[in-house]
User: What shape does this take?
Amino acid sequence: MSLVQDMAAGAPPLAAKSDAAPPRRRWTLLWRILAQPKGAIGLTLVVLYLLLAVFGPMLAPQDAFRQNFAQTLRPPSAAHWFGTDQLGRDVFSRVLVGARATLGIGVGGVAVAFLIGVPLGILAAWRRGWIEAVLMRAIDIMLSFPDIVFALAVVAILGANTQNVIIAVGVVAVPVFARTARAVTLSILAEPYIEGSAALGASPARIILRHVLPNISGTLLTLSTLLFASTLLSASGLGFLGLGTQPPFPEWGTMLGESRSYIRSHPYLATFPGLFLAVSALAFNLLGEALRVIYDPTSRRTARRAPLFAFLRRGSPTIPATAPDAVNAVSVKALRMAFRTRDGLLDVVRGVDLAIRPGRTLALVGESGSGKSTLLRAIGTLANPQEVAITEGAIGIGGQSALGLSATALRELRRRKIGVVFQDAASALNPVLTVGAQLAEAVSAGSSLDKEAVRQRCIALLKDVRIADPERRLAMYPHQFSGGMKQRIVIAIALAQDPQVLLADEPTSALDVTIQQQILVLLREIQAKRGMAVLLVTHDLGLVARFADDVAVMYAGRIVESGEVATVLERPLHPYTLALRASAPGAGEGRGRPLRSIPGEPPLIGQFPAGCTFRPRCPRTQGRPDCAEREPEPRTVSGRQVACLFAEEGLS
Ligand SMILES: Nc1ncnc2c1ncn2[C@@H]1O[C@H](COP(=O)(O)OP(=O)(O)OP(=O)(O)O)[C@@H](O)[C@H]1O
Assistant: This one.
């Protein structure tokens, strides 16, 4: 048995194991709030307060504005439950009537803060760079003033009335909204489904509306509730100082301010509005706490490296475009890429040539850190230009250059020609959208299909990836599917626009071996049906042997050996390919030999040795000064390309 057959034979049988997960019951937000004691109490009180704000003036037993100098400063009694004030007005009626103004200021203040702060925060996260720096510094300066001082300054400038109090307390809360919106947006932008959506050609506005806002809405709702209480207290502080709602209109803070001269002789005057105010702040805080538990970002996802999503709003890097290759679905020529670091540009991809014909699968293999994912992202036009520069070379997709395009042309190219499948299907799907909504988005991007046609196409796609009962599945959420099913859905989304090229970055490494097999067999079938070119990044030579047609072995940012799988894996000529093969499970085991690890470490980017980069780990290099002098260029030896000065030694 040949080595390739040997490794292919190591494949587990395609067991009839089902990767379907039973659907889980979805708790509604209301139920989850009521399930917590503080949520139940908070929500009940908030509802009562809102009812009070709406119906308070109608429920007031007496005219809240009518002065009666014969009845001033009367303590609570049956006629005046909360007593009367210094002008003989019924305090109970004033508290009821004042609910609307008090809560109105809270709602208005939060709305002002939300409407200014959230767009600023999203803008800072999206644009990064100087816009983010300027916004964040301005917010730091605002935060360095105590709230009440800032609100006082705003009211002093604008004048004391209810409308200006709303603006003042709103402006004071803007920094909190902006900071939070920025932080949660950054973490959402780092999610692979955002990259997936960009790969489908979605515009920045669509990504924000469709993916970012729904995902950050829970956090913002929690924050709004919590800030409502502090806004209310800031407004009452202004009222207490005489800068809030002006007499004779009742508002709880203003009523407190009016009562301060009588606080010792007639404490009930301050007690009732103060009590209503304190309990309202408590109610909103309790509700906010309950929402925080539900939406706590630390329980849902941990912070991730936040990439700068400049690629969504910019065109592709401007490299002198060479003529695209019309025969190959993917053609990469002399590509060089470098990471932008504090120490300058660090080469990561160094002169790579690749070509994939329609209907073929090219596997890109190599140790961790060799630059495979960076190269795949560049081919998918997903490399972030603020992070990594394409310094030389050309990339062609379906006969079209992928470099030097405008943002619109780039989105069109991604949408029409490229599908991407990432390793982690769980984070490649948006958890707050149904599978149907995500598929529909992929199908309808750039098309004029009506709703029913989109639905039918979604059903057909789910059938293509062998998901049973697709009509019902469309209404389900990602968490109701198992890992294998999620990956099928990700593949269906990637196939939605009939791409010519499918890029798969370790698409099955998060799955168990049986499911892995099913997914790869499925990919193979779909590829055969559609004639797509597939670029498969993997560490697993066994998978390469079974599922790829061609293989390119990458080491330290270069392709050191490439050709047909049967040729390269059967008789590797580069010492690195030989070492990789010897370390692959299935290569040695079946023959009773132990697995061998590759001695030494791959070089870090920016620290490549002179001459051949594999030299420090190479068994062939001893006593050969040529290896230290220059980096070998790939040349044809025995039916493949190999970059080793002494490749012929592998033939003997
Ligand atoms: N933003 C960055 N700035 C600097 N270096 C980076 C950055 N991102 C990745 N690298 C480095 O670039 C090298 C190539 O990374 P890449 O992810 O392309 O490798 P890989 O071959 O795909 O590895 P793996 O198989 O582990 O995914 C690695 O050494 C990595 O540490």
In short: The CA atoms of residues 122 and 208 lie 8 Å apart.
